[in-house]
Amino acid sequence: MKLADLNAVKNASIAISNVIKEEQIVILESTVPPGTSEHFILPILRKKGVKTIYYAHCPERAIPGKTLHEMVNNDRIIGGLNKESVEKVKNLYASFVKGNIFLTDTKTAEFVKLMENTFRDINIALANEFSLLAEEAGINIWEAINLANKHPRVNILKPGPGVGGHCIAIDPLFLAEKSNKARIVTLAREINSGMPVHVVKLVHEMIKDVKNPTITLLGLAYKGNVDDIRESPTFKIKRIAENQGLSVKLYDPFVHRYPGNSSTIEEATKDSDCLILITDHDIFKEIDPKKLPMRHKNLIDTRNILDYDLWKKSGYHIKILGDGTS
């Protein structure tokens, strides 16, 4: 079980405790396990003898590439230590937040943030499990999800090669670290963490007759059109593949100065035996398969974003994650 690493929060709290004065405001936006403010942060802040602190936990709600916009326009939660803290922090946030502001206590605010990311993780896990079942049943999960979502109260998410980012892949475990009741939470993490293993299994099925195979992973970022590589499933796929004897090349035009990231897609695909699309960058849709110097023309798309007629005309053998008909 992974445990929350509170070192950064601890160091920040210690630094603040050395300069804090009476009746100053302290706000935590970082995601933490429930009870962290009360039992971990506040005792540190009070070590120097300060009696009155206006403290609140206001969980961040922002995504890479839209951080400033979402800081201003999203609804926000203020979890205050007491009524006075809530009012002072509310007045501060109201000076720049255009969204609604909702008030609660610190522990509830901490719990709500974890609920939000866990909700997303569980729903992604459901989509991923559907994709695995569809492959076994000989069904195209992408068509099935599209049809199921015609129901007015159904909204199934898209499956993929795993969950990345600094929130969804980590935060649900904060709920489970001190409880044995987080069964769905931990199962969802298990399903999503297992998707890279499944992707490598698909690779082996595709290149089982190739000697000394080389594969190319398209995308280092954990999501499309950003350069954020934190907890990206690409790295787990790479590690698993290499541990199983495959040579791995990488290419992501959004990520710069990463060791092993090829400078061009031609460099990344030269003498490669299988191309695996991991990240749904829009630019990958513009790839001309005829220009790729592949040794064997095999393609696995874990995001279902490419023009498959174009790739088939170029001679590619194609497998789509969750498509049991391909």
Task: Give a written overview of the molecule.
- The structure is a single chain.
- With 326 residues, this protein is an alpha/beta fold.
- Among the domains are: 7-99, Rossmann fold; 194-320, Rossmann fold (3-Layer(aba) Sandwich), CATH 3.40.50.720.
- It is 40% helix and 13% strand.
- The protein contains eleven helices and nine strands.
- It has helices at 7-17, 36-45, 67-73, 83-94, 106-137, 141-148, 172-176, 183-206, 233-243, 265-269, 308-313, and strands spanning 24-28, 53-57, 76-80, 101-105, 214-218, 247-251, 274-277, 298-301, 317-320.
- Strands 6-5-7-8-9 form a five-stranded parallel β-sheet. Strands 1-2-3-4 form a four-stranded mixed β-sheet, with helices on both faces.
- Helix 1 runs parallel beside helix 2, helix 5 packs parallel to helix 8 and helix 8 (183-206) packs across helix 9.
- The longest helix has 32 residues, at 106-137.
- The two termini are 37 Å apart.
- The mean pLDDT is 95.
General form? elongated
The biggest beta sheet reads: 5 strands, parallel
Distance between the termini: 37 Å
Share in β-strands = 5-15%
Largest sheet strand order: 6-5-7-8-9
Number of strands: 9
- What is the chains' assembly state? single chain
SSE class: alpha/beta
Spans of at least 5 consecutive residues whose pLDDT stays below 50 are: none
CATH T-level topology of the domain at 194-320 = Rossmann fold
CATH class of the domain at 194-320: Alpha Beta
Average pLDDT, to the nearest integer?
95
Radius of gyration: 23 Å
Share of residues in helices:
40-55%
Number of helices: 11
Order of helices and strands: HEHEHEHEHHHHEHEHEEHE
What's the CATH architecture name of the domain at 194-320? 3-Layer(aba) Sandwich
